[in-house]
Amino acid sequence: MEQKRPSIPIQVQAFRRRRQRPRWPWALAVALVALLLIWLVSRSPGESSPQSPTPVSTAQMAGPPWQMGNHEGRFTLTLYADLECPFCREYFPLLKRWVDVNNAEVALQWHHQPLAAHEPAASAEARLAECAAEAGGHTAFWQAVEWIYAHTRSDGLGLPDGLHYPGLTPVIEECLASERPDAVIRAQAREATNGGVTATPSVRLYDRQTGQAILLQGPIEGDLLLSAMDMLAAGEPGTTPATEMPADDVGDIPGSPRS
Fold first, then answer.
1. Contact 69, 107 (CB under 8 A)
2. What is the DSSP letter of 51?
3. How many of the other CB atoms lie within 10 Å of CB of 139?
4. How far is CA 58 from CA 143, 171, 190, 206, 209, in A?
5. CB-CB neighbours of 202 under 10 Å
6. pTM of this prediction?
7. Which of 31, 58, 144, 155 can pair with 132 through a Cys bridge, CB separation 3.0 to 4.6 Å?
8. Are strands 106-112 and 202-207 parallel, antiparallel or unpaired?
9. What is the mean pLDDT of each run of 10 residues along the chain (259 residues)?
């Protein structure tokens, strides 16, 4: 006698049919969503945000003149200095620390002014700093300046005999054998002389917003620099204030109109 196969309820049959449906449409949808998320994430780092702008490094700028600090800040502070000047050697680390504190508003810019009394050592050291910068940019320039001031005997005596710059490379040596650094040094010395600079160190503070500038002769203290910034920001024309610290007299500079 033939036995009847038990019947399956309609709800169970429908459930089994649903479970047997292919899953690839859902997998495709998930993959598309994942790709969309990856695309959005990959775009976000390159999008600029007005609330948090990306700072621009001075290493991306061309030179000379060589700078440190924020070159897009309101003020540019130009240092006229001689690498054999003992007052410049003492003043430079103080000024550098002041710029580090105020770097949101100020960029420090170097301007060569080798003095005749300190030659040939002053120009030789200036050439080394320029060639280090030509090879390595702004950071390399300031590193060379710090190394020179740390090792020079000053007053025209120059670096000790047999002492060589530790960062010397074939690129720097090729630059030192050329006339490129001399052209920069002579041009900056002439510009300083024509601009009324009569002592080293001296600084010129320039307000990019008002277009006004003030020349401060001698090693100027940080409080006086802040006062000068306030004066320029107020739009008041300035003159050279007196300084209580000594400075080297410029005199005749090789290559300048007075020499």
1. yes
2. T
3. 15
4. 14, 21, 25, 18, 20
5. 28
6. 0.70
7. 144
8. unpaired
9. 47 44 51 49 38 37 88 95 97 96 94 96 98 96 98 97 94 97 97 92 95 92 92 67 44 36
